[in-house]
Amino acid sequence: MGHLNLPPSKRNPRQWKLLDFISALFFALVLLFFLLVFTPLGDSMAASGRQALLVSTSDPKQRHRLVALLEQGHHHHQPIEACPADSVDHMPCEDPRRNSQLSREMNFYRERHCPLPDEMPLCLIPPPPGYKIPVQWPESLHKIWHSNMPHNKIADRKGHQGWMKEQGPYFIFPGGGTMFPDGAGPYIEKLGQYIPITGGTIRTALDMGCGVASFGGSLLSEGILTLSFAPRDSHKAQIQFALERGVPAFVLMLGTRRLPFPAFAFDFIHCSRCLIPFTAYNATYFIEVDRLLRPGGYLVISGPPVQWPKQDKEWADLQAVARALCYELIAVDGNTVIWKKPDSCILNQNEFGIELCDESNDPSYAWYFKLKKCVTKTSSVNGEYAIGTIPNWPDRLITAPSRALVMRNGIDLFMADTRRWARRVAYYKNNLNVKLGTSAVRNVMDMNAFFGGFAAALKSDPVWVMNVVPARKPLTLDVIYDRGLIGVYHDWCEPFSTYPRSYDLIHVAGIESLIKLPGSSKSRCNLVDLMVEIDRMLRPEGTVVIRDSPEVIEKVARMVHAVRWTATINNKEPESHGRENILVATKTFWQLTSSSS
Fold first, then answer.
1. In terms of DSSP H, where are the helices of 254-392?
2. CA dist 326 to 102, 282, 344, Å?
3. Is 261 strand, coil or helix?
4. H helix or E strand, kind and range, residue 296
5. 167-197 pLDDT, tens digit each
6. Is residue 446 classed as helix, strand or coil in its secondary structure?
7. In this predicted model, what pLDDT tens digit does every residue of 523-559 receive, in sequence order?
8. Helix, strand or coil for residue 226?
C-alpha cells in the first residue's frame, strides 16, 4: 500500500475513485449508525413507544402552539393525549435510555438529568393495565396490589432476604432487608441498645439505598420519620414499591452533587448495605453525610466494609475519617457500626486532606451544587441545632427554631404561619370536604412549603408530607427539618424525582410563583407543563388543592379538562386576608383503550 504516501499528483485516478468510494461508503455507514443511535430517526425505527411519541410533538413550534391553546382554554373539550403504554413508569429526569450515554465517573449518569421542556412529549401518563386504587394505609405497609407495579424482579431476587413476595393478587412485605433477613424489627431493637430510638430524641432519619424501605416503614411506629432514597436501579422500582406502601421515599443518587437537603437536617442517618464508597474521592461522601447530620446525631453503617472479609483497608479508612471528624464510636456490633457526631470539632490532621469550608460556603445550598471536599464549620450557633438542645418530638413541631431567623421577624412569621395553616386545614376538611384525616389519603405533597405550616397542621392525621421548598425561594427547608418534618429542594420548571402515581393529595399555595422569576412577572416555564407533571405524580382519584389569586385560579380552571380532572372553585376561609380562591380537583381514573395505545 505504498502508493498512499505518493504526492497527490502522482496517484492513479482509478485508485482514487475506488478509495473515495470506499471512504464515502464507510462515512455513510458511520453517519447512519449515529443517526440510528443518537437521533429520533433511530428511535422511531426502534418504535419504542416513548420515542415514537417524542416524534409526535418533536416540533417545538407545534408544542408551543398546543401549550398556548391550552393556556387560553381553547382546548377544553379535548383532553391532552395519553402517553404510550410503555411509559407507565416514566420519570423524565431519570430515564435510563437517555442517561446511559453520560459519564459513569462518580455515578454521574445515575443522577438527575432533565430533558428541556421542548424535548418532552406533552401527554398524560396512563396507569398500567389492571391498575387498582391502592390498598389503604396501614394495610399497605404489608401488602400492595401486584397489578399496580407488576415488577417481579425484586421478589425473585430478594425473596430469600424477606424483602417481598407474591401472594395471590398482592405483593406482601415481610419486612426483611439484605442485612436483616429476619425483619427490620429485631434489627431496630439491636440498634435501640445503643441509640435512643424511643422517646422523641430522634425524629428525622435518612435511609440511604433503602431497598423497599422496610427499615423506614418499621421506624414509623416509634415516631421516627424516615426519608428513604435509592436511585432508579436494576432491581426495578424499589422506590415505587416504598411509595405504594405509604412510606416516605424519593428517587436519588449520591453521585457528584450535594443531596437536595439543608445542612444538619437529619437526627439519624442509616446505610444498610447501601454500597456508598464513603472514603473514596478523599472521603467526599462521608463529608456529605456529615453536612446532613445534625450535631449530636447518629450515623449507622451496616454491611461492607464493617468487619467485612477482604475489606480491611476500607474499614480502617472509614474509621480514620470518622476519627478525623471527631465522631464518637458508640459500638461495633457484628457488621454494624454506630457513631455519634460531636457538637463541635477541631479537625484532626488527616490523610484525606479534609479541611474546613470557608465563610462563603452556604452549607444549606444544595440544588445542583457540586460536592465539596471541605467540612461545614460548626460554630457556637450550631449548638442550638444539636440533639439534646432542640426540643424532643412532638414539642419541636410548634417551637420556632433559631434558623427561622433567616427571615426578618422570622419567629413571629413562624408563629403566624403555624396558626394560619391550622385554620386553613380545618376549613379544607370541614368546608371543602378534602379527604385529609381519612384513610383515603396517605402520601401528601406540599409543593410550596415555606415553613411547613400545612404539614404541621396535619400532625394527627395518618399521613406523611413531602415538603418541597422551591430552589429559587428563600431556603427555609432547614426550619422544616428543625420542626421534625421532612422535605426536599426542587425547581418546579423541572419534573420531580418520583414515579408516576406517587401521591394521594398534592397541595400548592401560590402556584404561579413556582414558574415565575423571583420578583418578576416573567415566566421561566409554563403552567401546562406543571399541571401535566402534577398529574404524573398524582394517583388516579387523587386530590389537588391549589390556592392563588382569582385570576390565576381562573387560568388553572381553564386547563383542568385538558388534564382530565374534575374541579370546583371555592372561596377562601372567611378569616383569611388577601384575595385568594381555592381550586379543589380530582384526577379521574381513566385507562388506556387499545385504540389510544
1. 280-292, 312-324
2. 37, 17, 8
3. coil
4. strand 293-302
5. 999 999 876 577 777 788 999 999 999 999 9
6. strand
7. 999 999 999 999 999 999 999 999 999 999 999 999 9
8. strand
